[in-house]
Specification:
The complex is a heterodimer of chains A (about 575) and B (about 55). Chain A is mainly alpha-helical. Chain A has a domain at about 75-250. Chain A is built from 15 helices and two strands. The radius of gyration of chain A is 23 Å and the shape is globular. Chain B is about 80% helix and about 0% strand. The chains are: A mainly alpha (about 575), B mainly alpha (about 55). The interface between A and B is medium-sized, with 40 and 26 residues.
């Protein structure tokens, strides 16, 4: 008999097995973030030209571990927690096959440890991309494969939970939008993991000598089907988290469920094709392949993100206006709960993802202008805007939400928690913006020494590039401080936070089940179908339901157009037309 | 009893548009989500790279 408990504050139902898996995955994710953050500090202090901390071999080892920990392990562990939350808690359903889910989790932990052991062994400093013919230790690849298989099991447990929920009629009508978003993330994850298996298993066999040769062009093609798609899992999942937090904090409902679901459908159709933008400068692939996958398919996925970027703040605005915050275009935003880290993390995630990550992403996905920033530090600038400001901050907001709800602990240091999202966002925005600026001046990514000291084919960057890298270094340190604060608050709350339920002991914070007294065998009431539409006609100004959001969207559009043409101007200076 | 359940189920299905019923099917979405990139990104790309003539040694 499935056991459930109901959160007295939110009314959410938690299935016992699912709850423990959510906790275990979320904690494992935060541990990976902590490791990734410590490594980030070392990377920052080395790429900061005035400090240049690590020697070359240590730098490449640390950079490899930072990429794997922060971009793969932190993200995917946390996404597993989100899948179990969206499948079980939001649908009021028991989790399908919890034992398989635990097996998947254990495999992910073993895989992560194995890969990190290979990296810190010093002979697998091949970067996260591990391009052949660079060869890592066999257990580097094997660990990633085991991790991926564990995650794949988690995805199928999630799909199984959807089937269980439907068969047991735990909800009316369609699944909620947040669960639909998680399903899209799960689908992208399955393609991602399958692509990873396609390339990492042969590469593992190559590393142990069973295969003589891996074609580098083929490797890059298939690897990026995994490498970029893994970031698209994040996009689909963090958009779902935006909708969730908007719903929880404001009682906001999507302006149009149909439009939001259609935008998610665009993700399913087109988002993964955007992997091609990593190969825009690769020989061997035709212009047709590149243009279809980027300039056609990718733009439709971008359109979907713009829709979400419009409908989430739009939904918040409509909800705020319903509460009477109708003065001017932005009273709803001014009087939003900026001191609540759940909201501030989420909203900064949304704005940062759109303005910094989104705009720069389109520039990178345009074949002609991509070439002026390809393989420069512009690229890390871009993806720190998407996966750190965008995804990581959304995860942080969700963590603040779940500390009392899931872990049944009161958050420690509430004043520090209010400041944390701003400190982290300030630092990471500096990293993103100044890396992009330095990249525009041509500063190479993944390079230990931008001064090329002792190199016979050195290159002298302008002094501005050194200044920009220094400012990015300052931003990186601020970002690490913000990240450390998050880890202290999150982990500290699980250990030292006041118990909101007597059964919530120390071990229970880390995945050990609560005592049986916390649960009942009673099946939760069926989740009712949401009312058809959230928007009413009499809100807003000038005929708009959400005029403030419309203005913000126009600012984004104008910023995008200006920045896009600035890059064409840069390109024209590279290749003068006479 | 079983008839009542079936009737409820039918009524519920009738309240959901056919389009919505299609996109409510996670396995259909999974098929589309895997088939699209497999065809347009992976297979097309593999065919292009595989058709590059090998340089003479």
């Amino acid at each position: 008999m499935a056991q459930f408990r109901q959160c007295p504050d939110t009314g959410l139902f938690f299935h016992k097995e699912a709850e423990n898996l959510m906790k275990a995955n979320a904690v494992a994710g935060v541990v990976c973030l902590l490791i990734g953050g410590i490594l980030a500090l070392l990377v920052v202090l080395t790429r900061w030209p005035a400090i240049h901390l690590l020697p070359a071999d240590s730098f490449y080892m640390v950079l490899t571990a930072h990429g794997v920990c922060a971009l793969i392990f932190w993200m995917i562990f946390f996404e597993m927690a989100i899948l179990y939350f969206a499948g079980s808690t939001l649908l009021r359903s028991r989790l399908a096959t919890p034992r398989w889910a635990w097996a998947g989790f254990v495999m992910m932990v073993i895989g992560a440890v194995m890969t990190l052991a290979a990296i810190f062994g010093g002979k697998s400093s091949v970067m996260m991309t591990s391009y052949v013919p660079m060869r890592a230790e066999p257990h580097f690849y094997l660990g990633l494969v085991i991790f991926a298989v564990g995650a794949l099991i988690g995805c199928f447990v999630y799909l199984g939970t959807l089937v269980v929920a439907k068969n047991e009629k735990t909800y009316e009508g369609s699944v909620p939008l947040v669960t639909f978003g998680a399903t899209v993330a799960c689908i992208i994850a399955i393609f991602t993991i399958a692509s990873g298996a396609e390339i990492l298993i042969p590469t593992y066999l190559w590393s142990i000598g069973y295969i003589s040769h891996i074609d580098p062009a083929m490797y890059r093609l298939i690897w990026w089907a995994m490498g970029h798609s893994s970031q698209q899992i994040n996009v689909a999942a963090h958009v779902a988290v935006w909708y969730l937090i908007a719903g929880v904090i404001f009682g906001a409902r999507p302006m149009s469920e149909k439009v939001s679901r259609a935008a998610y459908l665009l993700y399913i159709f087109f988002l993964q094709l955007a992997s091609a933008h990593h190969l825009l400068t690769d020989p061997g692939l035709s212009v047709e392949w590149k243009l279809f996958n980027t300039s056609y398919a990718m733009y439709l996925a971008v359109l979907a993100s713009m829709i979400h970027g419009l409908t989430v703040p739009g939904a918040i605005e409509v909800a705020q206006r319903k509460k009477g915050l109708t003065n001017g275009a932005f009273e709803w935003l001014r009087k939003a709960p900026w001191g609540n880290p759940v909201f501030s993390s989420m909203f900064i995630s949304l704005v940062g993802f759109g303005f910094l990550g989104g705009i720069s992403g389109v520039v990178m996905g345009t074949e002609q202008i991509s070439i002026i920033i390809h393989n420069t530090i512009y690229v890390p600038g871009h993806f720190h805007a998407t996966v750190v400001i965008g995804t990581t901050m959304a995860w942080m907001g969700l963590t603040y939400l779940l500390i009392p709800v899931l872990f049944r602990r009161k958050m420690i240091f509430p004043q520090a928690a209010k400041m944390q999202p701003y400190i982290f966002a300030l630092g990471m925005s500096m990293v993103a913006v100044f890396h992009m600026a330095a990249g525009t001046l041509g500063v190479a990514r993944r390079h230990w020494d931008m001064g090329f000291a002792g190199n016979p084919l050195g290159f002298e960057y302008p002094a501005t590039a050194y200044l920009l890298m220094g400012i990015a270094g300052v931003g990186g340190v601020i970002g690490v401080i913000g990240g450390a604060l998050f880890c202290i608050i999150a982990v500290g709350s699980l250990v030292f936070g006041e118990k909101l339920q007597k059964e919530a002991g120390l071990l229970q914070s880390f995945g050990v089940p609560l005592a049986d007294s916390a649960y009942t065998n009673e099946k939760p009431a069926r989740l009712p179908m949401a009312p058809a539409e959230a928007v009413e006609a009499d809100h807003g100004e000038s005929g708009f339901e959400a005029p403030g959001t419309f203005i913000l969207a126009m600012v984004l559009l104008v910023s995008f157009v200006i920045y896009y043409f600035i890059n064409w101007k840069y390109l024209s200076e590279v290749w003068g037309i006479s | 009893m079983a008839d009542e359940n079936n009737t409820d189920e039918r009524e519920e299905d009738e309240n959901i548009s056919p389009w919505q019923q299609i996109i409510d099917n996670p396995f259909l979405l999974l098929f589309i989500g895997v088939a699209m990139p497999t065809v347009f990104y992976t297979l097309w790309g593999v065919m292009e790279i595989a058709s590059i003539p090998v340089a003479p040694y």
